[in-house]
Amino acid sequence: MDQIIVTGNGPLKGEIPIAGAKNACLTLMPATLLTDQPLTLTNAPRLSDIRTMTALLGSLGAEVASLQEGQVLALSSHAMTSHRAEYDIVRKMRASILVLGPMLARDGVAEVSLPGGCAIGARPVDLHLRALEAMGATLDLCEGYVHAKAPSGGLKGAVFEFPVVSVGATENALMAATLARGTTVLKNAAREPEIVDLARCLRAMGAQIEGEGTGTIIIHGVQALHGATHPVVTDRIELGTYMLAPAMCGGEVELLGGRIELLAAFCEKLDEAGISVEETPRGLKVARKNGRVRAVNVRTEPFPGFPTDLQAQFMALMCTADGTSVLEETIFENRFMHAPELTRMGAQIEVHGGHATVTGVESLRGAPVMATDLRASVSLILAGMAAQGTTTVSRVYHLDRGYEHVVRKLRGVGAHIERVKEEAA
Ligand code: EPZ
């Protein structure tokens, strides 16, 4: 397994291009199953999760051609050979569950392995299933698989209120509703930019959707969808992650393609902490001119609140802030695994249930640390960039799921970072 070795150094300077959003692409790709016409996605990120989704769609008979070094994906599912998403692929990536709604809507049948939990929580899929049942689907759980069938006339429009906001369940229901007979109203729907991006793509494919980005989405079912070409929205989590690099190391970095509206709540917290964020014609310029950042409290919430996917990275910033900050994680039950690793670097963090209290120290010290999940891995790299001495991050395969060319991008603004093969134990 590879390791990343990073040495703390001074202020950063330069620019970082931000890629297309992993979490948008992972729901846009299964949308190809809604039509037998070709779907082309541009601005696609080059990530291992995208390759996993490609393999999953391939196992169903869909074709996914990766063009222009992976930045363009040409998808087509006119020749489906299977409606069964196997456990050995689904267990690698929970977003695999997003093939369920589209297959059910178009072909009336789907068998999808339950994804199982992951490091950050149990992550059930009950809301996905309940929304599809509301549209008339019959679902049986057997040997770890969901066996789904639509009524003989196809799914039917329904009014469904999500008891809790769920990004994935909203995406599955939204895709399924595009081909249902009649109108579907999704209440307490997720409002993330990735949902808005999916709705835009589905509309380009002929779907009739209104209200995306609000808590209520209305979908008028149509007979069939056609192909489209759609640009994947900018990755707001990659954006926020790299905005923290100058915030932690000092200096000034421009994030190309960044837009404040993608992460306004996050930018407000950066402002409170004393970091300047300025919109430019090419993106966002972030700078920490002088002095320590100020400690601020954070509570993760569904969009438009502070994103849970930036909680680990923001904790790294708070480790050397002036004062004490409390980070409350309300979305996932086990998303503080980066805290013990940051503590190895000298951070002072106390975790009690869903709260982490961080007492800022003058400086962190480099140490060997271990990545535990995708977002924790990058928070350790950010901490290593701001620490005194050298930090070795192991198990960086987590990183490859969600960050393309992370060494190249950070080197480009002056970070002392390299990726090496782990010495055999
Ligand atoms: C998506 O996961 C993202 N993944 C996650 O990003 C992100 O953290 C999460 O949304 C929240 O924003 C993708 O888009 C591929 P949820 P998802 O359904 O859809 C509970 C990353 O780092 N829940 O909004 O799985 C669930 O347990 C990843 O890129 C149910 O109880 O998240 C959680 O507590 C990590 N039943 C809460 O809802 C369900 O059926 C929110 O989960 C579904 C979810």
From TrEMBL:
<protein>
    <recommendedName>
        <fullName>UDP-N-acetylglucosamine 1-carboxyvinyltransferase</fullName>
        <ecNumber>2.5.1.7</ecNumber>
    </recommendedName>
</protein>
<feature type="binding site">
    <location>
        <begin position="22"/>
        <end position="23"/>
    </location>
    <ligand>
        <name>phosphoenolpyruvate</name>
    </ligand>
</feature>
<feature type="modified residue" description="2-(S-cysteinyl)pyruvic acid O-phosphothioketal">
    <location>
        <position position="118"/>
    </location>
</feature>
<dbReference type="GO" id="GO:0051301">
    <property type="term" value="P:cell division"/>
</dbReference>
<feature type="binding site">
    <location>
        <begin position="123"/>
        <end position="127"/>
    </location>
    <ligand>
        <name>UDP-N-acetyl-alpha-D-glucosamine</name>
    </ligand>
</feature>
<dbReference type="GO" id="GO:0071555">
    <property type="term" value="P:cell wall organization"/>
</dbReference>
<dbReference type="GO" id="GO:0005737">
    <property type="term" value="C:cytoplasm"/>
</dbReference>
<feature type="domain" description="Enolpyruvate transferase">
    <location>
        <begin position="7"/>
        <end position="410"/>
    </location>
</feature>
<feature type="active site" description="Proton donor">
    <location>
        <position position="118"/>
    </location>
</feature>
<feature type="binding site">
    <location>
        <position position="94"/>
    </location>
    <ligand>
        <name>UDP-N-acetyl-alpha-D-glucosamine</name>
    </ligand>
</feature>
<dbReference type="InterPro" id="IPR036968">
    <property type="entry name" value="Enolpyruvate_Tfrase_sf"/>
</dbReference>
<dbReference type="GO" id="GO:0019277">
    <property type="term" value="P:UDP-N-acetylgalactosamine biosynthetic process"/>
</dbReference>
<dbReference type="GO" id="GO:0008360">
    <property type="term" value="P:regulation of cell shape"/>
</dbReference>
<dbReference type="Pfam" id="PF00275">
    <property type="entry name" value="EPSP_synthase"/>
</dbReference>
<comment type="pathway">
    <text>Cell wall biogenesis; peptidoglycan biosynthesis.</text>
</comment>
<keyword id="KW-0131">Cell cycle</keyword>
<dbReference type="InterPro" id="IPR013792">
    <property type="entry name" value="RNA3'P_cycl/enolpyr_Trfase_a/b"/>
</dbReference>
<keyword id="KW-0670">Pyruvate</keyword>
<keyword id="KW-0808">Transferase</keyword>
<feature type="binding site">
    <location>
        <position position="331"/>
    </location>
    <ligand>
        <name>UDP-N-acetyl-alpha-D-glucosamine</name>
    </ligand>
</feature>
<feature type="binding site">
    <location>
        <position position="309"/>
    </location>
    <ligand>
        <name>UDP-N-acetyl-alpha-D-glucosamine</name>
    </ligand>
</feature>
<keyword id="KW-0963">Cytoplasm</keyword>
<dbReference type="InterPro" id="IPR050068">
    <property type="entry name" value="MurA_subfamily"/>
</dbReference>
<dbReference type="GO" id="GO:0008760">
    <property type="term" value="F:UDP-N-acetylglucosamine 1-carboxyvinyltransferase activity"/>
</dbReference>
<keyword id="KW-0132">Cell division</keyword>
<dbReference type="InterPro" id="IPR005750">
    <property type="entry name" value="UDP_GlcNAc_COvinyl_MurA"/>
</dbReference>
<dbReference type="GO" id="GO:0009252">
    <property type="term" value="P:peptidoglycan biosynthetic process"/>
</dbReference>
<keyword id="KW-0573">Peptidoglycan synthesis</keyword>
<comment type="similarity">
    <text>Belongs to the EPSP synthase family. MurA subfamily.</text>
</comment>
<keyword id="KW-0133">Cell shape</keyword>
<keyword id="KW-0961">Cell wall biogenesis/degradation</keyword>
<comment type="function">
    <text>Cell wall formation. Adds enolpyruvyl to UDP-N-acetylglucosamine.</text>
</comment>
<dbReference type="InterPro" id="IPR001986">
    <property type="entry name" value="Enolpyruvate_Tfrase_dom"/>
</dbReference>
